[in-house]
Amino acid sequence: MKPETRRSAETALLPGARTGRDPARSIKRGPSRLPPGVVAATQRERLLDGLVLTVAQHGYQRATVSDICRAAGVTRPVFYELFTGKEDAFLAAHRYGTGVVIRRMAAAFAAAPDWCAGIRESLRAMLGLLAGVPAFATMAVIELDAVGPAGRRERDHLLTRFRAFFAEVPELPAGVTAQAMVDAVVGGVYCTLQRCIGADRTAELPDLLPTLSLFCLAPFLGPAEAARRLELDPMP
């Protein structure tokens, strides 16, 4: 990963990490000295933050465009200049936020000395990010189902992106394909996150690191070897 890409991954914020009405991003009324592109980008960021916080609080179905605009401090006409509707804005927030998560995970993976450590460190990055911005975790993992078919397609696409972290898996027994095994592991991790976030235990996500690390490695290395590679203490 190039240094500038790594810095971008480290500094980019998840939608919902700031309030839409953050004074640092206010745009004064009247003629603006800011270029139109900068104004539009700022308004878009504020709307994504407002959407995440609104959906996390009220749920996707009950959240309205007016609620989102109010939370962002942006007018409805501006909202419709940037998005075709609530679903479009939701998917934009999901794509942007999950992109931040994937890039942060990739940076942690690349900095690790080997594949096993890379899996653990990429999981650590993901769990820490989601725990740090619970509104985004709720919006992206729990409320995605409420969007309907477009949300399900978005999730399916996201889960396939995690295959990149398993490019170095050892050879599996005959009749067991690596992609099917990887998809099963990724799906299991996602379901675990879903249960924890849905139970309002998002702050506890980092505590899952040993369990999820072992879960990701054991199918490919065996439980004992996976535990040894992760330097986990054996059960008494």
Provide an overview of this structure.
With 236 residues, the chain is mostly helical. It folds into 2 domains: 82 residues, Orthogonal Bundle (Arc Repressor Mutant, subunit A); 141 residues. The chain is built from 11 helices and no strands. Helix 9 runs antiparallel to helix 10. The N terminus is likely disordered.
Shape: elongated
In DSSP terms (H or I, runs of 4 or more residues), the helix count works out at 11
Q: Specify Rg, calculated over alpha carbons.
A: 20 Å
DSSP strand count:
0
Helix percentage range? 55-70%
Name its key features.
single chain; 236 residues; mainly alpha; Arc Repressor Mutant, subunit A; 2 domains
Chain-wise SSE layout:
Elements: H1 3-11, H2 36-58, H3 65-72, H4 76-82, H5 86-111, H6 115-132, H7 134-142, H8 149-161, H9 178-198, H10 209-221, H11 223-229
Summarize the structure.
This protein has 236 residues and is an all-alpha fold. The protein has helices spanning 3-11, 36-58, 65-72, 76-82, 86-111, 115-132, 134-142, 149-161, 178-198, 209-221, 223-229. The model is unreliable at 3-9 (pLDDT under 50).
